Amino acid sequence: MSWTKKQFVVQAFDELGIAAYVYDLQPEQLQTALRRLDSMMASWNALGIRIGYPLPDSPGESDLDAATSVPDRANEAVYANLAIRIAPGMGKVVSMDTKLAAKAAYNNLLLAGVQPTEMRLPITMPLGAGNKPYQLGNENPFVPQQDAPLQAGNDSYLDF
């Protein structure tokens, strides 16, 4: 089950040592943290890091209780980086452990989305001595021309 926006905000405050069970978080603090969360996720979205977070149309339309579709592997990256973003406004200094955890979680999030690009052999490359023309059915001693792959674009998905 995915987290709500409020769970990310409360966990970020907890990461800073401002736990909700000890300190009463004011609605203004929650709204400020929510705006920073939305801003951070919008900047990640602009970088191509799309993890299912519902971005609001405007800052005033964001709802703390809205469910997100953020996968579990991205939760730590979201709340730890949010803690770093809200700390200066709270007058807190972020611990080195939180900074390292945020950086590691963000890097792991990026690594989860990386897919190696498929490489092709150039058509000017010889097939080699082991490939005889009678085995290939043609007299071309070079790598045959391949069809271009089907591409959907950077922001698209291909549905079948």
Could you characterize the architecture of this molecule?
This protein is mostly helical and 160 residues long. It has a domain at 5-113: Orthogonal Bundle (Hypothetical protein yqbg), CATH 1.10.3230.20. Helix content is 43%, strand content 0%. The chain is built from five helices and no strands. The protein has helices spanning 5-15, 27-46, 75-90, 96-113, 133-136. Helix 1 (5-15) packs across helix 2 (27-46), helix 1 (5-15) crosses helix 3 and helix 3 runs antiparallel to helix 4. The longest helix is centred in the first third of the chain and has 20 residues, at 27-46. The radius of gyration is 24 Å and the shape is elongated. It starts with a helix and ends in a 24-residue tail after the last helix.
- Outline the low-pLDDT stretches: none
Distance between the termini: 27 Å
What does the radius of gyration come to?
A: 24 Å
Query: Can you count the beta strands?
Result: 0
Mean pLDDT: 84
The CATH architecture assignment of the domain at 5-113 turns out to be Orthogonal Bundle
Q: How much of the sequence is in beta strands?
A: under 5%
How helical, in percent, are the residues?
A: 40-55%
Write the CATH fold name of the domain at 5-113.
Hypothetical protein yqbg
Q: State the secondary-structure class.
A: mainly alpha
